Amino acid sequence: MPRIKRIRKVSNPPVIKGFKPYGPEVKGASKEPVTLLYEEYEALRLCDYDMFTHDQASELMNVSRPTYSRIYASVRQKLARAFVEGRPISIEGGKVYFDSDWYYCSSCTCNFNNPEKDKAIKNCPLCGSSDVHEYEPTDDEDVVSENDCKDICFCPHCGYEQRHRKGNPCNQMICPDCNSKMKRKGHKSDKI
Amino acid sequence: MKIAISSSGNTLESTIDQRFGRCAYFVIYDTELKSVEFIPNPNKDCEEGAGPASVQLVAAKNVGKIVSGEFGLKIKPLLDSLKIQMIVLKDPEIKNKDVIKFLTRTH
Question: Which three-class secondary structure state does DSSP give residue B102?
Fold first, then answer.
């Protein structure tokens, strides 16, 4: 089975759904449209409109640099085909997600995001208060959240333990004593 | 709409769990039927991939929002593509019934 495709990050959906050709040779809706995927539109926007390098753009889309280059090559081919053959272009589909922004409610002190970009946030989804703002992360908040997780990462090799830090997957941590990979403590297979 | 709450126990008196993927129970609250359902989380002791597995579990219940203390790294892209809203409550003392009381007022 092939590896599952990574979900590509798209910052904003395109403002248009597609393009139509015009001219004396074009008669009505004659030809099959060329379908651009959302991720291809985003790749074109990042590289040719925002002038990022492939490396920077691939990071923004949350894919590897070679994958980004493949998406970019495919969009160039599709656009060229549409221009040369006089086909309409429609932008749809693709394995993408639209990055959502965070909001903060001062009334119940909760943070929440807005996964549906086309609808504006007016009320807090929890308490219904209209006292909501866009959330700006601050540095001192991270220090507090690091220490309030009670889970423990441990090294299966030498038994070294340390408190789990949020946002750092245990299996990517390296034990400072014996340089082997660490695990989350409390897993069933470790107790045997 | 259905709303999932990550909970540390299977009663309305239990507090919400500060972790999403490895919480003990999920509370599924239905705003139309006013019903509450408790689902034990099979990914509680997962070594890795607890977050995405839990997303799959609650997404199968057709929830529109998830209330939890914290969401892991892998979860935001998944929930954004499923159009599920995340609500982060940093208060470890808050109980399930308090969250549900909030939700009944707004829906």
Answer: helix
> pLDDT by residue (tens digit) across A142-153?
444 445 566 777
Non-local CB neighbours of A51 within 8 Å, separated by 6+ positions: none
* pLDDT tens by residue, A64-91: 999 999 999 999 999 999 999 889 999 9
Could you report the per-residue pLDDT of B57-98, keeping only the tens digit for each? 888 888 888 888 888 877 888 888 888 888 888 877 888 888
Interface test with B, best of A63, A108, A181 (most B CBs within 10 A): A108
Q: 3-state SS of B31-89?
A: CCCCEEEEEECCCCCCCCCHHHHHHHHHHCCCEEEEEECCCCCCHHHHHHHHCCEEEEE
DSSP state of A143: H
Nearest by CB to residue B77, choosing from A9, A109, A186, is: A9
- Cα A9 to Cα A13, A98, B53, distances in angstroms: 11, 6, 21
